[in-house]
Amino acid sequence: MKPQKIGIVITTYNSPTWLKNVLFGYENQSHKDFTVIIADDGSGQPTRDLIDDFKARGKLRIDHVWHEDKGFQKCQILNKAIAQTDCDYLIFTDGDCIPEPDFIALHRDLAQPNYFLSGGYVKLTTPVSQAITEADIASGNIFKRDWLINKGQPNSHKLWKLIENKLIKALLNAITPTKATWNGMNSSTWTSDIKACNGFNEDMQYGGLDRELGERLYNHGLKGKQVRYSVNCLHLDHPRAYDNPETWKKNYAIRNDVKRTGRFWAENGITKKTSI
Asked: Among residues 5, 71, 16, which one has the least CA distance to residue 38?
């Protein structure tokens, strides 16, 4: 069984410069039949104007899901996006991750019932992130190791994810010690399975909120499929204002409880308890 209607859920917050390049990446996908669902955690007018410009270009089918800025509420806006979509398969990423040209096609081809896909990413340096243009994205050059190295990206083992040999990619997926986890910048599964777990846990703040969903998907009976060398995006570098030790401590406690109890349902998720 293959997905019939694919949605790509992109989270963003007041980062129109990065989002612009990400949307250029989706305009240049080899597989064209998908919906872009922008889960916007309260961005201002510049982001709205950018999205309207891309709608006017007519190359992408875009749904803009927005709510008022009340601080970091990523899980809440993701749940709103999930609740309103009619897509049967959802790919989750961020507004600072440029997809490779076959990103959608690979997620579609690798999708399986009772699995979620755990994709990879290459984190760029700030200078390389800032050097990328629309023409670079359209040409696909940014996904070539030599191009990145020439622009100043360190030549490390992390660039192995950009090798082109599919057999080597499959081998690396098989032997990597990295567990197939749910990663917010590059993971996908069936909408029905996410809803069966009641979506994202809105008690979670920055730090591990994506992993927590993956752990509940495991508890629900899904398995993770490691594709971190097969499906990739480029992560543009930027500061993270919401990163703090207290939030991480709270989130770790929630995740430990999920592991201890084996629960898969998020009480504070897409649907909420109603008081009597």
From this structure: 16
